[in-house]
Structure formats: C-alpha cells, structure tokens
Amino acid sequence: MALTLAEVEHVARLARLRLTPAELTQMQSQLSAILDHVALLQEVDVTGVPPTAQVTGLATVLRNDAVQPSLAHAEALRNAPAQDKGMFQVKAVFEV
C-alpha cells in the first residue's frame, strides 16, 4: 500500500514530528513497505486458529503477594558503610 506524501506529512504532524523533505520521502517508502508486509499477513489463512493473547500457556508469571518476615531494622543497617539517626547515609545526589 503506497502512502502519499500528504498522508506521511499528516502522520508526522499527528506524531508531532518535524521532518525534512528528505526524511518525509524516506518515511514514505519505509511506512509503505511496512503496510505492504501487514497486507501480506492479512492473506494468511487462520481458519480454525483460536484467538490468542498468550502462547506459552502460562496463566501468570508473578508470585502471589504474601506478607513475609523482613529484616529487623538493626540487621538491615548492620553492614551500612554510613548511617545517621537510624537511616542509611548516602552522598547527596542533587546540589542544593
């Protein structure tokens, strides 16, 4: 499906892109090629293939969110290179 230069300019404007005339021409050929590949996919016979959103069979890859014991405050700070008032002390990231 060959896109016109006006269509590419419209898409660029929607995407808030400023493209040079050379870039517009390049995008025209690249986007047209992408649409040609999509058109090829439309020709594939998928009769009998159920719609799928996930092909690995996994229901979820996340563990259940369960409360578990954590480190005691003193134990968490035990190996801290620097601490102040019961907190980790780190170098400033932002200048004041």
Could you walk me through the main structural features you see in this protein, from its secondary elements to its overall organization?
With about 100 residues, the chain is mainly alpha-helical. The chain has a domain at about 5-40: Histone, subunit A. Helices cover about 40% and strands about 5% of the residues. The protein contains three helices and two strands, in the order H-H-H-E-E. A two-stranded antiparallel sheet has the order 1-2. A hairpin with a 2-residue loop joins strand 1 and strand 2 (about 85-90). The N and C termini lie far apart (about 55 Å). The model has no long low-confidence stretch (mean pLDDT about 90).
- What is the helix fraction of residues, given as a range? 25-40%
Which outline best applies? flat
Major sheet size, sense and barrel closure: 2 strands, antiparallel
Strand order of the largest sheet: 1-2
Succession of helices and strands: HHHEE
| Rg of Cα set | 28 Å
CATH names the topology of the domain at 5-42 as Histone, subunit A
Mean pLDDT: 90
CATH superfamily of the domain at 5-42: Glu-tRNAGln amidotransferase C subunit, N-terminal domain
CATH class of the domain at 5-42: Mainly Alpha
Give the oligomer, counting copies of the same chain as homo and different chains as hetero.
single chain
Contiguous low-pLDDT stretches (5 residues minimum) are none
Write a concise keyword list for the protein shown above:
96 residues, mainly alpha, two-stranded antiparallel sheet, 3 helices, flat
